[in-house]
Description:
23 strands; alpha+beta; 472 residues
Amino acid sequence: MYTLYNVSVMKNYFLPTKENNYTPKLLTHKFITIYTFLLLVFNIATSNAKIFAAFADVDAASILEYHNQERLQNGLNTLTLNSKLTASAKAKAKAMMAADCWDHYCPAGKSPWDFIEDAGYQYVYAGENLAEGFSDNKKVFDAWMNSKTHRENILRPDFEEIGIAIEYGEFQGISNNALIVVHFGSTSLDTNQSNPSDVPVSDSQGFSTIITSPKDGAILNTNTPVIEGQSEDGIVRVYNDNEYISNTTADEGIFTYRFKQDNALIDGKHSIKAEHSENLTHDQIEIQIDTISPEISSLNYDSVLKRDKQNFVVVSLSGSQDITQITTNFEEVEISKLSETEWTLTIEYEEFRSENEIELTVFDEAGNSTTKTANLTSIKGIANNQVLEFSDPSSRLIFGIDKVGLRRSINLVFILFILALITVDYFALTKISLDNNIPKKRMGHHFSIFAMLLLITLAGGTTGELLNGINS
């Protein structure tokens, strides 16, 4: 009897019966009010929480279009997409992702201007806007326009070019987050100029002094660099960090100076100036000396993965933060950077099995390198007995938590539950009601409630976060 009573009570919650006046309790106004309240509280409380996925859907083309539409409406020139600014924005986004830092001066205090200069863009004016966690292009652009510092960058008359980068990944505690970096710039310098006949000429003083090599912002792996340039014939003085070093002679418009061991540059940044002794025209560049090779601290076997019916060996590498490139003796290898100091190398097992050792060479930005070799015999013995199932996260179903985040998964499950209740109620009423209009009227009422609840769940999307715009 107790079991029958429980079944009867449960039916009253899910099915229209005589006892519940043909309205399931879970679809009464009382329960609908409870659903609405709980959904609102849940979505408001978690809208900016850092434990949920952003699942952003933004693209650079639309963001560029919004910028130019806004500038045209304000009587300004449109911005042209610049490949160097795009490269600097992408490098900044990747570096921020790797270091998981949320600041204009990151990682490790590196400024936006460092990234722009590293990309070879000689700016007169530059700016940076950042955003993360936004779900569509219009929302992020509106947020920027509603922020004074971001709006100033978007509508700054000085800017002529733009670079946009969007990186997806684990960032600030959000899985599959979107980090958006926008670099603005303008320059009066022709950075592609390489023809000596294009060197600026002064009518009254002859040639202007110009340093042609190394390039401004270059990172060099020698502490005795060669300085080359063009100037009016005569004596050219060379300075390091505003301290006089030595003289050289310009002959037929060309001068060369090589630092020697007795005045070799120490590792770090240096300001090099070349000045003609008579007409005092000069040029100055910033270079960085880096003669220290990157380090490989450990090289270890991790596991064997099975992907697309093939086995892959995963090797982990730990090294110094300055590693920018890795090469191996394997033809097919997938290299992934996990953090500033951690990398993984995924190698097809058949190719892995044909070699006796793995040889790795790591490079830094200056071109310094370090090579390390590890014997594979012991690794192969372990790998033969360990094959782990592996699935690519990008191929998971939309219902997967990694794909859409916990909040959206809960919202989706709830909506499906309510939809199932309404559907069951409709078909149950058609079976027991003599009046065919009753189920139709009930469905109209239920679907208006369903639409309201659906809007609440959709409004619970990640709103995103901005960092104040910055310019120089």
